[in-house]
Amino acid sequence: MSGTLLKGGLEKGPFSKQQLTYLDTSLKSLDTDQLQWLAGFLTSFSWIPMEHVADPTDSVWVLYGTQTGNSERLAKLTAERLDGLGIGNTLCSMGSFNPRELGKINRLLVIVSTQGLGEPPVEAEAFHNYLHGKRAPSLGHMKYSVLALGDSSYADFCQTGKEFDKVFEDLGGKRLFGRVDCDVDFEDSYEEWLNGVLNEMSQSRALSANSIEKMVPETSEMGFRTYDRKTPYEAEVLQKINLNGRNSTKETLHIELDLGDSRIQYQPGDALGVYAHNPDELMMEVVETLGLTGTENVTSHTGEKSLMEALRTDYELTPLTGANVIRYAKLTKDPRLEKIVDDNMELLEYLRGRDVLDMIRETPFKLSAETFITLLRKNSPRLYSIASSSEVYENEVHILVSTVRYKAHGRNKGGHCSTYMADRIQEGDRISVFVEHNSRFKPPVELDVPMIMVGAGTGIAPYRSFIQQRQSGTAQGKTWLFFGDRNFSTDFLYQTEWLEYLKKGTLARADVAFSRDQEEKVYVQDRLLEKGEEVYRWLEEGAYFYVCGDAQKMAKDVNHALRSIIMLHGGMTEEKAKEYMDYLRAADRYQTDVY
Fold it and tell me: Residue 96: is it exposed, middle or buried by C-beta count within 10 angstroms (0-12/13-18/19+)?
C-alpha cells in the first residue's frame, strides 16, 4: 500500500530525495490500520516542515549547509535580523530543501561551509550536485548572495561557497551582494556581509555595522556575563595527563579545566575553543629575520601594543596559510611566489610543512612591523571535542588533545595549540576558552535508543561525554563502541573507564582495532565489516550511528564500510543502500564530527 502511495503521488509532490527516502522507509513499515490512523491525524494537524516559513515568492530565503553548526547558527541569526526589520523570510537547511522551490524564489541568501579538501558538507551534497547537473534550472529571475565559511590554512579556502556563487551566476542569477569569504574568525566578515545584503535590499540605506545584532550579548537575560569567541573565559588547568604509555609514538593529553562561576553550559557533542600563544623562540626568530627588535609599536586588531606582544597573542605564525602567501607575493612581487599562488596544486605543496618563518627566510623582503602584521592571520581558536558531561563534572570541562610534532624544512615544529598546551601550560595556569555548540552531533533524546559510536584516536572524546550523560540518567538504550589506534598496550585511551562501563552494562559492546599490533594493519572499518550482520540489525532496531575523527581517510572508509554492510546484510543494491544512508542522515541517525 505504501509503495503505491509513493509511486502514485508522493514522488510528484514537493519533497526532496532525502525526504522521499525517509517517507518510503517509514510508510512501508506501517500496516493498513496504522496508515489510516496517520491519514486522519495529518488531515487534522497543520504541520509545516520548514524552520521558518513565509510566502516563497515574496520572502527572502535563507538556505544553509553546515557541518559543525556555524552556518546554521549564522543562518538563524540572519532570519532573526530579517524578522526584526519586518522582512518576510524562509529558513531552511540544504538537506531539507526541495530544488523545485528555486523557480519560486526571487531572493536567496546562501550560507555554506567547506569541509575536507574543498568538499561541501554532507547535507549540502545533493543540492550541490543538482545545481551542477543537467536538471539545474535557469535562475534569471533570482537575486542571490553567498556567505562562505572556511579555514585559510587550507588551500581550498571557502571552495564550496565559491562553487555555489559561480553556479548561481552560470544559471543566470544576479548577485544581490558580492560573496564574502569568512575565515575561522568569521564574526566581523559576517556582519559586513549582512550589512551589505540589507543595504542592497533598500530597507535602510543608513544601516551600519553597529546596527547588526551582536552574535552573543555581553550579558545574558539573567544578568550575568556570557563568554564566546570574542570574550573567552580564563579557565584554570586542574589536571593534565598524558594518556599514552611510555613507549608510545603518540602524546595524547587529557586536560581538565575549572569553569568556576562562569555559568558556562555545554552538552555532549559540543566542542571547546582554545586560544593559544606563539612560543617565544619562534617569535624572536621571526623578528630577527625581519631585522626588527620586537619593541616597535603596531596597531593590532585588539589595539596598540608592541610587535612582540601582538605576535604572542593576536596573530598566528604557524601553520602557513594560502592567504599569507598570496598577500606576501602581492607585496614582494617575487616571480616564484606569484607563480605558486597562481596554481592551486603548487600552492598546496608549498604550504605543506612551512610556517611564516620559512616564507620570510626563503623570500627575504624589507618590511615594517606594521606592514608585517597585515600579512598574518588573526589568532584563531582550535576546537576540541568535549570529553566530559556536565551532569557528572559540574563546573568542569575535559578535552583530549593530540600533540602534533614534526620536522620540516630543516626545523622541528609543532601544532600551534597542541604544543602550547603540551609544553607551555602547566596545572594552575589559565587558558582562554569558550564553548562552541554543535547541534549536528548529539546523542538521541530518547534514552532507550541504541547508539553505535565509531572513533579513532582523539575521536573517542565525545563518546566519553555520551556515556557519562547516559550513566547519569535512566537510559536503557544499548551502546556499542568501535575504537581504533596504533597499539593496545600504549594507546587504548580511557581504557580503565571503558572496561568499567562494560562491567556496569552502560556500554553493551566494545570492539577495538589497533593497527600496529600485527603485521597486517587493522582499522575500525575492518571491525565494522566483521560485525556487519549485527551492525545492520542494530540499525534496523533504530540505532544512531556516529563517526568522529579524521575526515580525509577514516570517516570515508567507515562510510564505505557502512554502505557495504547495508548492501550485504540488507540485500540492497548500491543505489538502495545509498538511499538507506540518506534516510539515516535525514533522520539525524547518521552523524559525523570529523576534522
Answer: middle
Strands across the sheet containing 451-456: 509-514, 479-485, 451-456, 544-549, 590-594
Give the HSE-up count for residue 214: Cα atoms under 13 Å, Cβ half-sphere.
12
Assess whether pLDDT exceeds 80 at residue 12. no
Residues 344 and 392 in one domain: no
Can you tell me whether residue 437 is helix, strand or coil? coil
For residue 13, being part of any structural domain is answered with: no
154 assigned to a ligand binding site:
yes
Mapping DSSP to helix (H, G, I), strand (E, B) and coil, where does residue 539 land? helix
- Of the chain, the end-to-end C-alpha distance in Å amounts to 43
| CA 315 to each of CA 149, 248, 309: distance values in angstroms, whole numbers, following the listed order | 20, 33, 10
Q: Which three cell numbers stand for residue 498?
A: 571503558
For residue 137, the 8-state DSSP code is: P
Is 383 annotated as contributing to ligand binding? yes
258 is in an annotated binding site: no
Interstrand relation of 479-485 and 451-456 (parallel, antiparallel or unpaired): parallel
Query: What pLDDT was estimated at residue 471?
Result: 86
- 385 assigned ligand-binding residue: yes
Mean of the per-residue pLDDT values of the chain: 88
- The pair phi, psi for residue 547, each rounded to 5°, is -130, 130
Structural domain containing residue 362:
280-378
Indicate if 129 and 196 belong to the same structural domain. Answer: yes
For 491-529, b/e burial (b = at least 16 CB within 10 A) is bbbbeeebeebeeeebbeeebbbbbeeeeeebbbbbbbe
* Average pLDDT score over residue span 72-91: 92
Q: How many domains does the chain have?
A: 4
Q: At 354, phi and psi to the nearest 5?
A: -95, 155
Is residue 493 annotated as involved in ligand binding? no
Residue-wise pLDDT tens digits, 14-44? 555 555 665 666 665 666 556 555 654 443 3
Report residue 257's pLDDT band, with 50, 70 and 90 as the boundaries.
very high
Rounded Cα distance between 191 and 175, Å, is: 18
**Residue 532 scores a pLDDT above 50:** yes
Nearest 5 degrees, angle CA 583-CA 586-CA 588?
110
Is residue 360 assigned to a domain? Answer: yes
Question: Looking at the structure, do residues 367 and 297 belong to the same domain, yes or no?
Answer: yes
CATH of the domain at 392: 2.40.30.10
- Residue 149 in marked binding region: yes
Helices (H) and strands (E) in the chain — how many of each? 22, 23
| 3-class secondary structure, 571 | coil
424 assigned to a ligand binding site: no
595 is in an annotated binding site: yes
Tell me: is residue 116 an annotated ligand-binding position: yes
Whether 345 has a pLDDT exceeding 70, the answer reads yes
Q: What is the CATH number of the domain that holds 319?
A: 1.20.990.10
Which amino acid makes up residue 342?
D
Residue 280 assigned to a binding site: no
C-alpha distance from residue 260 to each of 74, 387, 556 (Å): 29, 18, 40
Is 517 annotated as contributing to ligand binding? no
Do 156 and 344 meet the contact criterion of CB atoms below 8 Å apart? yes
Tell me the mean pLDDT in the region 188-192.
92
